[in-house]
Structure formats: structure tokens, C-alpha cells
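Example 3.2
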Amino acid sequence: MTTELDQFFSEWKDNDTRIKQAFGELLAHLNTLDRTRMEFVARPTVSYSVRPKHELQKKRALYAMVDVIDDDPDNRWLSVCFYGEMITDPEEKGDLIPEGLLGEDGYCFDLDEYDTKDLDYLKLRLTEAHANAPE
């Protein structure tokens, strides 16, 4: 993690939704994926974004976007987005966002409270996008 990301994470006061914990688990999962570099983009009052990229990825600047939505710092939530063709969504939990991921169609999965099943599902999608990123 970057120093800026470390600082953001350490200063974040979690609440009973446990979104900080969920974000931490997604970051830990991303750190297990080989050849992944992460960029952190802070836009206070809008979002804090982690953008993982596979080292062999050529077409795009990232394979996922893990956003902490910051429109209400006391009640943050997560939006995890992927390019449509890089993942499957067998449980149809994602929302299609036309041109919503850096100008391309993507699928976003929103999480407003800690949920083990939803986190496991998102980790599978992150792994899937990572595997498809070098194509």
C-alpha cells in the first residue's frame, strides 16, 4: 500500500457497517494476486479509489476499481467496478454502468455493510478480472 493509502486507512473511523473492515479485506485479497500494482486516487468528499493493474496488462490502466464512496464520511460505502468482458456475474449482483468505468461499460457491485458472502463474491470477481487482465 502507498503511504497515502496507509494514512487514509489508519485515519478512517469504522462504524457498525464495518465497511472499513470490508475494504481492508479486499485490499488484502488484491495483495495476494501476483504481478499486481495498485494506484491510489484520493478525491475527498467524492471517493478514495484503489486501482489495481496487472503488470502484463496492455489495453487498459486497470482491471478493477475499488472505490470508497465518501459523500458522507460518517457513512461510507464501497463500489467495486470491473470491465464487463473481464468478469462473469453468475448471481447477477452487479449493475451495468454504460461508459461508467473510465468511459467504457462496466459492472459495479455496491456494498453498504460488511457481508461475508458478498465479500467472497467480490474476491472471486477480483481474481477473475486479474486472470483476464493480460489478454
